[in-house]
Amino acid sequence: MAFVTLKDMGSDFHRLERFDGGDFVRWQRKMHFLLVTVKVYYVIVNPRPPEPGENEEESVAKTRERLRWDQDDEICRGHILNGMSNTLFDAYHTVKTAKELWNQLERRYITEDATSKRFIVSKFFDYKMVDGRSVMEQFNEIKSILDRYSQHKLALDEFIVVTSIIDKLPPSWKNFRNNLKHRKEDINLDELGTHLRIEEDLRKEEKSKSEGWKQHRNRKKQDNVKHFFIKVSGFNGDSKDAKLKGCTGLLFANAFYCEQLY
């Protein structure tokens, strides 16, 4: 008999997302793994041992086997129900056996997953990367969509996937996109991810250097302005009146320069 404590069951349920009607195939696979782990999945595929006939004497082993099946069926049914949202729990808690519950869920949600497949296909091909967001962040979102392809047993050639993602790169990556498209050798999805990460890191580094140089140039410009007024006006920084005198005394000076002194 499968020995499952309440603590074990609570820990397993904590790791499993509650099924709310979406992504049934993924949830079902996770639930299948859980039920196999606690050794109760067999009640879904193996029928309940029959009761003895009216005049048939049953062995102790047969009785224990049937009692074990009944207990494991209740545990299995409990796992499935507790892996569902409150709304679905209320809708299915009266189903008597784990097998019946499993089959009802399949009949209801496998059909709906056919529509989900079409949605996932469209979601991948319609996805476009945009400027202003991390390219790697968007690349990982696309990979998440592709993971759902596998969950639904949808096959898509990796060359087509890589080519499509390259075409989805944002406008500011135009030159990089063209370089990738003109490569002689093909690259796989992981290699594409490596290229994108390196390119994004280089762009961040260049941007940081550019901003640092811009700040340095602005500070240098301000210093030059101050030195210009000190030299021409004789201002020594003793008082605001002196600054005002220095500024107003230079008829050819730009108002911007005066602002720098304040």
Walk me through this protein's architecture.
The radius of gyration is 35 Å and the shape is elongated. It is mostly helical. The protein starts with 5 loop residues before the first helix and ends with a helix. Helix 6 crosses helix 7. It is built from twelve helices and no strands. It has helices at residues 6-15, 24-37, 42-45, 60-82, 86-92, 98-126, 135-151, 158-167, 174-181, 189-233, 240-248, 255-261. Residues 242-262 have low confidence and may be disordered. The longest helix is centred in the C-terminal third of the chain and has 45 residues, at 189-233.
Low-confidence regions:
242-262
**What share of the residues does DSSP label as strand, in percent?**
under 5%
Sheet with the most strands?
A: none
The backbone outline, from C-alpha atoms, is elongated
Give the beta-strand count. Answer: 0
**SSE string:** HHHHHHHHHHHH
Distance between the termini: 85 Å
Chain-averaged pLDDT: 81
Oligomer: single chain
The share of residues in helices is 55-70%
Radius of gyration: 35 Å
Report the total helices.
Answer: 12
**Number of domain modules:** 2
Computed structural class: mainly alpha
